[in-house]
Amino acid sequence: MSVYSAKDTLIFISTTSQDTEPANEAAYEALSYTEIGANGEVESIGRFGDTSNEVTFAGLKDGRITRAKGTRDAGTLDLVMAINYADPGQVALVAAEKTDFNYAFKIQFNDAPDGGTPSVRYFIGMVGSAAEEAEGVDAILKFHSSIWINSPVTRVDAAGA
């Protein structure tokens, strides 16, 4: 089993809004993307991926709770980065937050085997926030962006050469 560091994980936004989820991996790959934090400003991408709501039923006869899966939610991606007003990715996030549209996102992990390709995650989502933080005198100015994921996450595994 291999263990990978989050170091060198990259995140990208497509600056073209998406009316519908791209049909498959190839459709996502055909889009043009802008890297967010290309100069290394991204501190954290956060947690994402499907979680099911719990649906319960309490039977009178047996006094037991029966559970089922309900609505699935891929979550909210909470990006944290150092502010860089010249970063095209941060500029794109600010512009996307001002709209009511979905945008495609791409996350690339640093897990490629020797000579291979890394794993990638694709999804569409709305940019729900583009906020700045000045936490204190000994703190870096930060930019926070919440991305509301509105599709399943398309997973492309790392591949060998």
TrEMBL record:
It comes from the Bacteria. This is Phage tail tube protein, TTP. It comes from Tropicimonas isoalkanivorans.
